[in-house]
Predict the structure.
Amino acid sequence: MAAGAAAGCGGKDRISALPDDIIWEIISDLPVTEAARSTALASRWRNIWPSTPLVLDDADLPEPTRIATVARILSGHPGPFRDVSLVNCRFGPQDQDHAAEWLRLLSAKGTRNLVLFNQPSQPPLRLPDDFIRCSSLKVLVLCSWTFPGEHLPGIFPNLRKLGLSWVSMTDQHFDHLLAACPFLEFLYFLHDRTLQRIHLRSQSLRFFLIGLSVMAEEVAVVDAPLLQRLCFDDLRCVGGRQYMRVRVARAPNLRELGYLDTGVHNLQIGDTVIKVQPNANYAMASPSTVVPGVKILAVKVNFGIFGQVKMLVSFLRCFPEVDTLHIESVLHDPSVAADEPTTEHHANFWQKISPVECLRSRVKKMVFHKFRWDRNEFEFLKFIARDVRELQSLLVLPDEETISSMDKVNEMIDKSECPRFRAWASRVFLVLPGVQKVLDYVKAFDITVDDPFL
């Protein structure tokens, strides 16, 4: 590198004449093996790489020598370690001592941001006690590890972001983790199979997400004054469990919530529980059953199940200040709907229902995901056209197997037999056939993204 620069500059090494801080930036942007080789370029460079905060991504290293190279770099570089990503160096049960040494080095040499994956198919290895006390870590992402069984003081005292996937943890350990991390702002769980009651008690937590996991018995926001975003998606029912309680006790700053699922979530606000009960009447809102701060709400509903339609209304009444609403239409299960009311019954329900505060006077933007143009979905849209006053745009993302072109969409609107709906649709409708949006976990964890569901 320096030799090439010198050859083009009359034999003078221009790069080595750069200030140290610029050279450090150059070194930190190089793949780690190239950065290490810079020590051979010139005498000026010999101390640059060892004095530059380490940036290590094992994806840059060739497979046959990857583990040996990582071991050599971790032991040879004096630190600090700025960004370390180890997603391809996997440990088996026989590698506990080897893994513990790497974690000791990562802790001792001031690692700031760490991504550490292990084989999900292997029994998870235990995190060493000295590692979980690491005070330099700001961002940590773990896959397939186990936290120590006992409650230890000083767990990640300066951690701000934590991502856990295939990590074994009891409810008590989760409570202790939140209590022991005074600066933790972002937390997500993926592929969790162990937590039963997730209680959020944190004075610092702002974002929480759980997805691709076994459905817990309860997710409760007990005391989280700064919590802004609460997301859950793709939670699986196992062991006979059919429902999960979502409880909101104290979350004065909650702004984005979803996906609430009308088929599996029981919503508790204060002492009032809105349950999934097919034959129950929908709940009316009262001051004790509302969360006034939520601005973006996402709800999944099967419009073929009348009980879920009523749950949708009950959920909406609990969030009177929502201005952006996401509705995802869940695929109809014929085995459940053998004795469901007729479409006319659904239409009669939407015609007689009393106004929903957020829909009538607040919602300005609505996104309808996986729209199939089912008659029951259409009755809901006619209710929206009749009752919503502030709506400025309705983005419809059709199910890709149902509607494939705008011509088909326009044909369906023209045949709606509802002139008011046709006029309304021409003004606010925006249909994007072939575009599918799902909850993006990276976006949901990004503070710069205003709407994690879009």
In short: The radius of gyration is 27 Å.
